């Protein structure tokens, strides 16, 4: 059965465990959009249709010709993500009125887990780290057809939608560029099965560029009535107190934010088009058989226990998690958009 992080939060009976899941939700705009299928194992295998069988018309009295169904196997695994939180009993017993020491240390570790999950959802690659799951960038490059990579202009020329560039151009030229950008976003979504995307992951400058182009096209609508969670979210992707990330054309645009170092953008610039630094846009369909989270079991948080040294207490957070896709048109990327 697939559950969301909000379901996981409701299922936790311990207040400390609830706080752990809640903190993760607050720090992961990506995670809160996913459902996680509990697979009760470390790897899941699925048969996928590779090619359709040939069929024919027949003459009366004759048999139909037999066609072979093309089948291939796809597999995905879970990888334990978690943290060991160690705290000296002197600090644990500190009755400071400012902040509970255990809460302080726990929140720091859980935030780091959320940033790591966000990073690997996009950039996870077994070529650089075999201990984590592979992200959508790697899956598009290695496992999906070349048709799932699209260009805003061409593979050798970028589309410049920077605010300064559009502002310096004649209005007709700026509008034409904006229309071309919006059309490219549509093409990227049409590359997915069903010609629609549920989620687009980019950086904050990509979302700002989209909003600016919508203004030039007189199509900007602030999704003020859309509510996503009960928590505040990153200012670059949502408006407090509980508004969704930017939504246009039924697709939610999410700022992936930064890595654990709090500096490096998760969706890094790409220079494959004319060696110009451009911001990619990753489009995905969510749910089975598309992009879906998997877990061996929901996130677990141990009770605080004392180590052999007699002075250190430890809490372990453990979550065997991954993502999977079955359908070959589960994701697509749009390249060659210069936004900043």
Structure explained in plain terms:
With 340 residues, the chain is of the alpha+beta class. Helices cover 27% and strands 24% of the residues. The longest helix has 23 residues, at 101-123. The relative contact order is 0.21.
Give me the secondary-structure topology:
Elements: E1 2-3, H1 5-11, H2 15-27, E2 36-38, E3 43-51, E4 70-77, E5 79-88, H3 89-92, H4 101-123, H5 136-142, E6 149-151, E7 159-160, H6 163-168, H7 171-190, E8 199-202, H8 204-216, E9 246-248, E10 251-255, E11 281-284, E12 292-295, E13 300-301, E14 305-306, E15 312-324, E16 331-335, E17 337-338
Parallel strand pairs: 2-12, 6-16, 7-17, 8-10
Antiparallel strand pairs: 1-2, 3-4, 5-15, 8-11, 9-10, 11-16, 12-15, 13-15, 14-15
Helix pairs in contact: 1-2, 2-4, 7-8
């Amino acid at each position: 059965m697939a559950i969301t992080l909000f379901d996981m939060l409701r299922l936790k009976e311990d207040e400390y465990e609830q706080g752990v899941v809640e903190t993760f939700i607050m720090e992961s705009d990506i995670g809160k959009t996913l459902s996680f299928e509990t697979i009760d194992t470390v790897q899941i295998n699925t048969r996928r249709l590779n090619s359709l069988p040939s069929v024919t018309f027949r003459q009366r009295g004759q048999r139909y010709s037999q066609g072979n169904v093309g089948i291939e196997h796809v597999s995905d695994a879970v990888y334990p993500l978690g943290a060991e939180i160690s705290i000296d009993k002197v600090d644990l017993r500190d009755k400071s009125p400012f902040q509970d020491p255990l809460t302080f240390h726990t929140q720091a570790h859980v935030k780091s887990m959320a940033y790591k999950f966000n990073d690997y959802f996009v950039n996870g690659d077994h070529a650089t780290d075999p201990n984590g799951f592979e992200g959508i960038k790697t899956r598009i490059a290695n496992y999906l057809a070349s048709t799932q990579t699209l260009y805003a202009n061409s593979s050798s020329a970028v589309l410049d939608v920077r605010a300064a560039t559009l502002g310096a151009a004649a209005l007709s030229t700026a509008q034409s560029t904006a229309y071309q950008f919006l059309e490219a976003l549509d093409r990227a979504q049409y590359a997915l099965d069903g010609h629609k995307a549920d989620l687009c992951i980019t950086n904050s400058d990509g979302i700002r560029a989209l909003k600016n182009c919508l203004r030039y096209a007189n199509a900007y609508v602030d999704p003020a009535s859309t509510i996503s969670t009960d928590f505040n979210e990153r200012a670059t992707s949502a408006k407090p107190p509980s508004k969704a990330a930017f939504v246009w054309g039924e697709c939610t645009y999410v700022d992936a934010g930064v890595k654990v170092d709090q500096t490096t953008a998760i969706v890094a610039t790409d220079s494959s088009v004319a060696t110009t630094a451009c911001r990619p846009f990753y489009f995905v369909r969510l749910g089975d058989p598309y992009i879906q989270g998997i877990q061996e079991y929901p996130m677990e948080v141990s009770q605080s226990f004392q180590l052999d040294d007699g002075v250190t207490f430890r809490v372990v957070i453990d979550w065997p998690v991954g993502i999977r896709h079955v359908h070959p048109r589960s994701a697509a990327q749009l390249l060659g958009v210069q936004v900043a």
